[in-house]
Design brief:
alpha/beta, 9 strands, binds ligand C2E, binds magnesium ion, cyclic-guanylate-specific phosphodiesterase
């Protein structure tokens, strides 16, 4: 009896493995095909200066428009893309497409905004610098409008090499932002040595502000750390007016979140630009 049960369990177990393996193979092939057949899309989430709530930039966020599954969010395929190496192709497409769109908006006479692009650990290698240089040349998008977002763990994986890559990116004139700050393992000694421009406070710390005492203390500490290192702070995942006002009072520089805007299709960015241009007529320039 026990033997039969054991065998059943074993069969069940191998069945599971086969399912997992074939599921991820199916997913991998679908993603490979999706990239090749142009099923990736970019949405853009606005970022605002806290001082005057003016539009400062957008973050490009990838989506997969799957023919049967519909619009697939990145958390469902970025991990797979990283495991299979497809992230290199995906990342190259994102970099080119985002800069192409950014330049299109400039050509159409919309305000000069920053464009932030996420870069995975696997992409963060010597070749990235040439890739970015080439994309800027081909699209005409200005380096000083481009922000590269990398995570703490990406930089910490090969910290001394990371300093070199960051320095060469900075020589191109692009900005670098440290994404999801506070969630990874990060050495404060390295933080000082990395040539960075911005720290993005992870939304995990923002969601329970201002009520959660620990999150408030962490957020305050991150902002004052950033200020002493001369880095701009960006709060991600701002969902309530209370959070926004609290962060404003702490001197956080920029905010991004559903309260202000969801990630938008390029066409929907147009009305944001028009509102921004209207405000520019009414207000003095300046901000953060
Ligand atoms: P991330 O770079 O930290 O991007 C911020 C994420 O927070 C986005 O999720 C955005 O839609 C979401 N978000 C923004 N405001 C709010 C808010 O108020 N509340 C909540 N709950 N969420 C908010 P998304 O677009 O699903 O992207 C998830 C992650 O996938 C990104 O996190 C980034 O790590 C990765 N990702 C997205 N696009 C790319 C890409 O082109 N390349 C790479 N390598 N990774 C990407
Ligand atoms: Mg990001
Ligand atoms: Mg982030
Ligand atoms: Mg995040």
């Amino acid at each position: 009896h026990a033997k039969a049960q054991g065998r059943n369990q074993y069969q069940f177990f191998t069945q599971q493995i086969n399912d997992d393996v074939s599921r991820s193979l199916v997913m991998e092939n679908a993603l490979r095909k999706g990239i090749a057949e142009g099923e990736l899309r970019l949405v853009y989430q606005p970022q605002f200066c806290m001082k005057n709530m003016r539009l400062r930039g957008v973050e490009a966020l990838v989506r997969w428009q799957h023919p049967e599954q519909g619009l697939v969010p990145p958390d469902f395929f970025i991990g797979l893309a990283e495991e299979t190496g497809l992230i290199l192709e995906l990342g190259a497409w994102v970099m080119y497409e985002a800069c192409l769109q950014g330049q299109r908006w400039r050509d159409e006479g919309f305000p000069d905004i920053e464009l932030a692009v996420n870069v995975s650990a696997l992409q963060f290698r010597e070749e990235l610098v040439d890739q970015v240089r080439r994309v800027l040349e081909e699209t005409g998008f200005p380096a000083e409008n481009l922000v590269i977002e990398v995570t703490e763990s990406t930089l910490m994986q090969g910290a001394s090499q990371a300093i070199g890559i960051l320095s060469r990116l900075k020589e191109l004139g692009v900005w670098v932002s440290l994404d999801d700050f506070g969630t990874g393992y990060s050495s404060l000694a390295y933080l000082k040595r990395f040539p960075l421009d911005k720290l993005k406070i992870d939304k995990a710390f923002i969601s329970d502000l201002p009520h959660d005492a620990d999150d408030s203390a962490i957020t305050r500490a991150i902002i004052s750390l950033a200020q002493s290192l001369n880095l701009l702070t960006v709060a991600e995942g701002v969902e309530t007016t209370e959070q926004l006002e609290y962060l404003q009072a702490l001197g956080c520089d920029l905010a991004q979140g559903y309260l202000l805007d969801r990630p938008l299709w390029p066409g929907d960015m147009i009305s944001r630009f028009k509102a921004e241009m209207h405000r520019q007529v009414l207000q003095d320039k300046g901000g953060c």
